[in-house]
Amino acid sequence: MPDNSATGSEHDPSATDSAPDTAQTESGPGRHPGDTSTAHAEAAPAEAAPAEAADTEAAGKKTAGKKTAATKAAGTKTAGEKAAETKAAETKTAGEKTAETNTAGKQTADTNTADTNTAGEKTADADGVKPSKLRRAATAYAHRISFAGLVFGTVFLWLSTTPSLLPRGPLFQGVVSGGAAAVGYCLGVFIAWLIRYMLSRPQRWSSPKRNYWIALGVVSVIGTVVMLYWYSRWQTEIRNLMGVENLSWTAYPIIVVFAVLVCALLMVMGQAWASLVTWLVRQLNKIAPPRVAAVAGLLVVALLTVFILNGVVAKYSMKALNSSFATANDEVRPNTAPPTSGLRSGGPGSLVTWESLGREGRVIVSGGPDVTMLSDFNKQPAMEPIRSFVGLGSGDNLRANAQLAADELVRAGGLKRKVIAVGSTTGSGWLNKVTIDSLEYMYNGDVATVAMQYSYLPSWISFIVDKERARQAGAALFEAVDAKVRELPEADRPKLVVFGESLGSFGAEAAFGTVPTVTARTDGALLSGPTFSNTLWNDATAGRDQGSPQWLPIYNNGRQVRFIAEKKDLARPDAPWDFSRMVYLQHASDPIAWWSPELILREPDWLKEARGRDVIAATHWIPFVTFLQVSADMAVSVDVPDGHGHNYQSAIPYAWSRILQPPGWTDEKTEQLEPRLHRDG
């Protein structure tokens, strides 16, 4: 990013449009017509010429014609040289004092910056008292601000208030607005530099007159008030659509404060980075051509930044995160206790201990409907469901853990159940309890669920740093369980299904190369809230039937896989559905599904096409801004009611009923089941 500090170098790519053009203070054709010191210097030859001519005539007594003219010319030349010396002395004196004149020719007492004298502004009071250090520092910093950067930053600030996928509270709106303003500022600085570079203009343009700054300030304030008004209307529309409480008046001051703080912090960091580039370029200028030095300096600082972030910051941050979340993993949540049944991991005869299961593993094996609850709902005797789980530290590696989980499943008698459900967890080992409980109710307990943990980190962190582990864990677990099932005679094999949510859906896909492979090797799959990195999901979405939208595509006329946002979509399209079925459950407002780095510069299809059911029409793609907005939406993706964002509950039992078609199960029973199901058990 080009620096917006003053460098005065023709080849300095870091100069910005806000710096003054110091060439205007030099003598020659470019000087200011009101420069009184120059006018005085030019008047000197007129005064000196008669005296010099008289001396010449008295000494020589030569002809008065052209010799006198020649003498006068010589005298004029001599006077010109003297005037030049006088001007040089004056310039030197003024330079030592670092105070030059503007159009009025008055000297200032400020010895701090050349920008001030070019702009024609005095930095001392009428008594000639020097301003305070704080004032001088503020003045110097103000002269580094780019007018073009502020214009773009203001526009991006306004655009950041436009709606995206989910309701945004004041904190995240302030962060988005501050970030957008900083991005806009940098973009404005870069564009100004690029234009100067393309025009081969060595100096920066002079700072606009004071009236322009005042006008920008007035427009910025009025425009921001107007955009906050529209922000409130858009947020009200989204919140009413999703059933979320509206914002109070106190939200708006919070937005402004956080926006200013975030923008200021990012700008200071950016200017510090640019100053480092400028300093390095100046050092390299001593040993290399200017343009080579500029490119080399920028690359060196960029590589150094990446090295520090990846090699130092990331290393110690990951160490701290692992330590912190490893401690959280040892916590025991309320209402969880070691199982007394051998059908649960950590119970009597289990291959793993209760302590090794981790926080989420302990929740899984100690929760779910018991025999009494199942019998009461289905009006017939039930079986106790099997839940096998292996924590992160149980084996030497992921493959060993997967094999241990399969062995634990066999030990508990899982191969004798009607359904084996292989669950792919999120980073910390979390599973959506609705997905497990629904199956257990539908089959009256005749189900065995198996899963394993592969990280201590939450899903959003694991997605960034542990995504490959999620893939390896998902593939290893399915292969280990599938191998056990295939040891049985084909007629005695239970139904084998896979499921996962969020990063878990990413891991669940890992054992399969294509959608047909999933349906060929399993009896069904339910993947909720897929991420933008899900390979099979992306392939199916990209190959969707013509006319179907990206947010709810139809693939291969729905023969093997169907995409749903709610239960009614299971009948879409009205066409035959193969026996082995796969369902992707996704919401148009789920930022986990629609976030992508491509949002920075590329408009996605889901914003080109008709909006999804819970995305308002005022949502549009804006370069850079939409990326920031959807990134912020990810942080609150589960803080919205069921059926929106990344909150999946009510549609899950309907999806399972269509995938597996349990004998005797009806939609009426699913409706009765809904109140008994809860996302976190």
Automatic annotation (TrEMBL):
Composition skew (Basic and acidic residues), residue ranges: 79-99
Chain spans, region Disordered = 1-127, 329-349
Compositional bias ranges of the Polar residues kind = 15-27
Q: InterPro entries in the record, alphabetically?
A: Alpha/beta-hydrolase_catalytic, Alpha/beta-hydrolase_N_dom
The species this protein belongs to is Gordonia otitidis (strain DSM 44809 / CCUG 52243 / JCM 12355 / NBRC 100426 / IFM 10032)
Instruction: Tell me the keywords, alphabetical order.
Output: Membrane, Transmembrane, Transmembrane helix
Give coiled-coil spans as residue ranges.
none
Q: Which Pfam families match?
A: Abhydrolase_9, Abhydrolase_9_N
Q: Which residues form the Alpha/beta-hydrolase N-terminal domain?
A: 162-369
The chain positions of domain Alpha/beta-hydrolase catalytic read 386-673
Membrane-crossing ranges are: 141-159, 179-199, 211-231, 251-280, 292-313
> In its UniProt entry, what is this protein called?
Alpha/beta-hydrolase catalytic domain-containing protein
Q: Where is the composition biased (Low complexity)?
A: 38-57, 66-78, 100-119
